[in-house]
Amino acid sequence: MKKIIGLFLAAAMSGLLLAGCVAPAAEKNSNDGEKVSIAEMEGTITDSLEWPTVTFAILPTQEITDVDLVVDKLNEYLVSIDAGVLADIVPIEFGNLSTTMTLMLSSSDTPIDIFTNMFYSTMIDVVNNEQCIPLDDYIKKYPEIVNVIGEEYLPFAQISGIQYGLPVVGAYSGFSGYALREDIANEIGVADRDGEVLTYDELTEILLKAKEAHPEMCFIINSVTGCNTNIDTMGDSTLQGVLLNRGLDTSEVVNYYESEEFLSYLRYTKKWKDAGLFLEDPLNQTIDNSYLKTGVAGGEFFGGYSIEDAKTSISTYGYEFTIFKLNEPLVNASSSSSAYFISSVCKNPDAAMKMLALLYTDPVVATYVAQGIKDIHYVLDENGCSWYPAGKELTTVNWCAGSQFYFPNKTLTYPFETSNPNYYKDMIKSNQDCQVTDAVGFVFDSSEVYDEYSAVSTVIDEYLKALVYAEIDYESYLPEFQHELRDAGIEKVIDAKQEQLNKFLESQ
Question: What is the structure's pLDDT at 406?
């Protein structure tokens, strides 16, 4: 974790002696941070020697070797703006994420000050395990953070009305849809319905035509995803108590597995199974979108915050796609965002909060952390979008290319691997324009019904995939599934979730 900035500071002071205070001022609003006036740095170096260093974790998807290089450039910029804090970045390998994070969040010997729960833990567990501190008093000092996140979205990182984290700025709104290869859509004459909202009957008709044209392909990889299109899961992937109608105009937690919604979905999946739309032997396959790349699949359930977002995301699979909506963009409890926290072992929370404020509001800081150094770790195209430098790719660029999605505020960085310069502007606009349900920010704490929740989860693991892939007859096995869920205690889980939701809504 050690970062040596002494050489930089010495060099900077030397530069000041040479430049004096007559160097011309320069702009500071560019993301790459290169246009910073040396004159503006005068008088800050000596003070910076006593600045606290804030350590924060990043989670690169590949090995990176340029940590010192990026940290030095970032600290150079922090000195230039008289930030009052310095940075220390610690990359944590995914393979050791749980062990490493737990150790660093419990030891004052190797602490991290700022971290995200993404890929590591649920927010409720971070809070219950006392790995973070409340931020309510600190946020008051930085109203600009609230402005960036949006006050209506702060509940994404609240527990019992207490602000424990800062939600990652991103696409809070989202729709469910289906992506069909554009060449196939043109072939069967439905490409002009791109962006149209379809019923399951209309989608089924299209998929049957696609299957007739391409009998060698499957068209649904993961049918479990599809069953969530008209409910608010409230962040519970097991669907143990949901809100129907995506949480619009209702606060009643219901047993989804005994609802007409679920029964209706099983009737559709039986049709899809009989038509050969599913991946062969789905229960014994690794379900991922590689099937789209290889041409095994011609389409899949897919969504995003907008049609353009969905197309940008899925274009990495080597084809253009026509996107059909199954609902409209909405922000509900299922939209819960990951968040950033100040750890309970942080020795200087004020400094950590100052660094968080910079990560959320300063484009130069955000870009250094998320994208690295211009022309070394990324280049810009004519549209102002970022790409890998020539000869580089994800595994060789030595920084976090393509990982902007989990950083505090990716909208301050350059859009990556897209030609749409308005990618982030569109994302923010979508958040502002869509409907927001009353349950936004609700997080279910299952600890009080731990035994029941675990027992119900076991039953769901046994039956759900087989039912929604129509590998077993739903008319015969659905009643058995429902009976075992009741025996395992699903009603107790639903009652606990309803009670917690009622308290949450009363506190808003």
Answer: 84
Report DSSP letters for 485-503, one per residue: HHHHTHHHHHHHHHHHHHH
Cα 107 to chain centroid, rounded: 28
Residue 30: is its pLDDT beyond 70?
no
Helix or strand run (H / E) with residue 380: strand 379-380
Unique residue bearing structure tokens 């026509």: 322
C-alpha angle with apex 444: 438 to 447, nearest 5 degrees?
A: 160
Give CA–CA dist 415/398, Å, rounded. 19
How sure is the predictor about 422, in pLDDT bands with cuts at 50, 70 and 90? confident
Nearest one of 3, 168, 10 to 70, comparing CA atoms? 3
- Residue 162 CB: number of other CB atoms within 10 A? 11
Is residue 212 classed as helix, strand or coil in its secondary structure? helix
Give dist(CA 443, CA 373) in Å, integer.
Answer: 37
Alpha helices for 252-385 (secondary structure H): 260-274, 290-294, 307-314, 349-361, 363-371
Size of the chain in residues: 508
Judge whether 328 and 437 are in contact, CB under 8 Å. no
Tell me the pLDDT tens digit for each residue of 205-239: 999 999 999 999 999 998 888 888 899 999 898 99
Cα separation, 152 vs 146, whole angstroms: 9
19 pLDDT more than 80: no
Name the one residue in this structure whose structure tokens are 């409340």: 134
> What one-character-per-residue DSSP string does 60-93 give?
-SS----HHHHHHHHHHHHHHTT-S-EEEEEE--
Selected residue with higher pLDDT from 26 and 370: 370
Q: Residue 247 has what pLDDT?
A: 93
Nearest-angstrom CA–CA distance, 264 and 191: 27
CATH hierarchy code of domain 6-170+338-369? 3.40.190.10
